[in-house]
Amino acid sequence: MALLLSPQQEDAGSIEEVREFITKNGGEILGEEDWGVRKLAYPVKKQEFGRYYFIRFKAHPSTTYELNTHLRLMGKFLRYMIVRRDE
Q1: Which helix (H) or strand (E) holds 15?
Q2: 46 lies in a domain?
Q3: Region for residue 58 given its phi and psi (left: phi exceeds 0; alpha: psi -120 to 50; beta: otherwise)
Q4: DSSP label at 45?
């Protein structure tokens, strides 16, 4: 999963909320990466820069559907994307 946050936003609470949602719904977090603040290719919600954060997790497909709905309702992220990875 890729998360794009506003660079001014305090991201610790938002990321922790996503982690808790995954683990409470039977998912397992495999890894995390913080790429830091980078310039965006085009403005997103009037932001020129964004903080990229990636979470690798394993969960049932219904959990990912619920997570997608939860992220949309949170509205704290500029963009997010959940991608299935074949192993």
Answers
A1: helix 11-24
A2: no
A3: beta
A4: T
- CA dist., res. 34 & res. 3, Å (int): 10
Question: Total structural domains in the chain?
Answer: 1
pLDDT of residue 11: 64
**pLDDT tens per residue across span 6-19:** 888 766 788 999 99
pLDDT bracket for residue 86 (50, 70, 90): confident
Domain that holds residue 27: 2-40+52-79
| 3-class SS of residue 61 | helix
- Secondary structure class of 79 (helix, strand, coil): strand
Residue with tokens 């509205």: 75
Q: Do residues 5 and 14 lie in contact, with contact meaning Cβ atoms separated by under 8 Å?
A: yes
Distances in whole angstroms, Cα of residue 2 to Cα of each of 52, 83: 7, 8
| Alpha-carbon span 30 to 57, nearest angstrom | 5
